[in-house]
Amino acid sequence: EAGVVQSPRYKIIEKKQPVAFWCNPISGHNTLYWYLQNLGQGPELLIRYENEEAVDDSQLPKDRFSAERLKGVDSTLKIQPAELGDSAVYLCASSGRTSGKYNEQFFGPGTRLTVL
Amino acid sequence: QKEVEQNSGPLSVPEGAIASLNCTYSDRGSQSFFWYRQYSGKSPELIMFIYSNGDKEDGRFTAQLNKASQYVSLLIRDSQPSDSATYLCGRGDSWGKLQFGAGTQVVVTP
Predict the structure, then answer these.
(1) 3-state secondary structure (DSSP) of residue A35
(2) Residue A71 three-state SS
């Protein structure tokens, strides 16, 4: 079974430029998450999708960040314009249908963003 | 106060010894607790999750949960060099939202 796929793995851009990250979750997983992980910190949730609906985007900086999950499968996270402080690893994760208890989240390899 | 607190380490453990990692959380409404392992430059992978008070064992790993004291711990028995990694503690709420601690770095020395 293929895991969560993310691209690109690395991205270097100059500040004020736009950038986009792509995620393909594990087949059949309805829930998709985007996390941001700074060096020496744990992942912080940016947005969570249930199918195509964003059910929790309270931590997403909406002035510059946007996300979409068309057709409830692949997802794209965009930053426009990027700032120096956006340099981090952006992780995508997915999980199966919840039964009220915790369902394991499977993480992709992440995209390491460097903003110069 | 952070929702989930962990000692950042590094925790140095001799090979073959027991590594003991601790984690505290602030929200008494937390439903589930979990430990992820993250190797340097890699993504987190789940080791264990626990819902109920007490111990849960899986191979060399034992998770312990004490909801009254709001702490969860992870024991790694017979530590191996391959256990050297950062261990992330986290909590989940009833909606499936997860919050991670900053992680504890474990270094197993031969």
Answers:
(1) strand
(2) helix
Q: What does the pLDDT look like over A35-90, one tens digit per residue?
A: 999 999 999 999 999 999 999 999 999 999 999 998 889 999 999 999 999 999 99
| CB-based contacts of B59, cutoff 8 Å, min separation 6 | none
Q: Does B98 touch chain A (CB under 8 A)?
A: yes
Cβ distance B31 to A44 less than 8 Å, yes or no, reads: no
Token pair 């474990």 in the structure block, residue: B106
| DSSP 8-state assignment for residue A84 | G
In 3D, which of B100, B104, B105 has the Cα closest to residue B33? B100
CA distance A12 to A56: 28
Q: Is the CB of B102 less than 8 angstroms away from the CB of A105?
A: no
Q: Does B46 touch chain A (CB under 8 A)?
A: yes
